[in-house]
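Re: [help] complex structure
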Amino acid sequence: MENTFTAKIWVLGDDIDTDIILPTEYLALKTVEDMKPYAFSPLRPELAGLIQPGDMIVAGKNFGCGSSREQAPEVVKALGISCVVAKSYARIFFRNAINNGLLLIENADLYDEVTEGGTAEVTPGKDIIYNGKTYEIASLPANLMEILNAGGLVKAMRKRNGLD
Amino acid sequence: MGMTIAEKIIACAAGKTEVHAGDIETVTLDRLMSNDGTTHLTIDMFNNKIKHPRIADTSKLVWIVDHNIPADSPKTAASQKKMRDFAREHGITFYEGEGVCHQVMMENHVRPGELIFGADSHTCAYGALGAFGTGVGCTDYLYAMVTGTSWLLVPETIRFNLTGKLPEGVYARDLILTIIGKISANGANYRAMEFAGEGLHTLTMADRISICNLCVEAGAKTALMEVDDVAMEYLTAHGRTPKATFASDPDAVFAETYDIDLSTIRPIVAKPHFVDNVVPADECLGVKIDEAFLGSCNNGRIEDLRVGAAVIKGKKVAPKVRFLVVPASRSVYKQAMEEGLLDIFMESGAIVMNPNCSVCWGACQGVIGEGETLISTGTRNFKGRAGHKDSFVYLASAATVTASAVAGEIMTADKL
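Output below.
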């Protein structure tokens, strides 16, 4: 996760809840691939079709509030989102995202200064560079980095137990 | 250094004498609840991703079908069959048709002092009995099911000192919506919300469950209440004893403290599309509704049905309005039947459904269409939560919801 990457930015607002990320009616679909077209559909029905692998989401406070449905971070990951940068995250979503290998970054300032369609240079655990300005970001605790680097909790356990 | 209730329960589960906010601890879970919202995903991972699949302690697992019951499509039927078959094969305690998972847990399983993971965000309801309940996703659940343990960041605590008594016609629902409005939808994020004080003793168990249940809508990791005589009486009546009863030490450190005089609370409505978007109910009077819902893990208990029945007795549901009444559990349903409450609802024109998550979950019963408006005792009013993305959900107490069903527009019971 030390590698720097450049990502195109999609901007969402405050309190992006799990029913926005994936509405209840699509939870019964068989695979996360089937769910992908409906991500964020109550808010921006066209968005899932526009997101390209490697893009990033920048949002305000309390991203992922609401339900414990793990399909929410799964579908964001499946869309190829490289990371989400938000002012804060709801705690169940935060755990679920890490457990699915989705990189979440907390930053108080970027959201207020960013424009959709721009690009940012992200170095996990270090900083984000956007529009010539550097935004410092904290590293996650070691136990979470192990999970994230493995690609999720189940993969981390398999790795720890020498299965992969 | 003193400890909060949350710190004491985690210390106990971590086998330590002392832990404090900010520590990351490995804990042994006392109980693991999962429902049909996500259990099929847990089973798939258990069967396909683990080399030596095993359950650390089957006796700690409780599985409950409550979100889509009875099954409403071949897909949900298949998912529930998977859950039912797995539970039978592994000897897991299994309920279907008994009620909403948190009500079933409160009636049958939760004990003060326990640390409980539930694969459902409203697991924080268990704090009404002094248990640390917290919602997790299916991967965390799987890990806890296989190892019996998990990791937890010890949360800071926001303390609410309650004094006084709720006025006549004002309910726990109004109190917790007022609190969420005050601290906002992420005001308690990563934190525990603890309720104590003499005002707590005036609240029934139904009130307490309603309050703790909704704390996740302020972002809380868990909600906790001191265990008093009211809680002990409930526990004893349901044939259980505490694991341990905790109160925060006088020198415990709280991140924030609020003093709330219950007598100052008034009827409240949360407007679309956020639970913290609250206003005095009077400001919403006259908003036309298409549907009203009395039920859910928040307000489907016998006390709530009594309130609703008292409001609607001898009156009719407004023309062109659907009023869905959904008892939170089979025992609530039976008691409501014995007390004649279901007769009152049915004579009024209400639709009385089987115990389940129903309208609150927005996928199984009472889904609302484009442009429609619902007033609900459910847990959330997010955009699209109850059906079409362009629909509107208002949240309020059982009294306000029932009065609105009669009026056909948002109405408080005192003005009906």
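Chain B touches chain A through 42 residues (CB under 8 Å).
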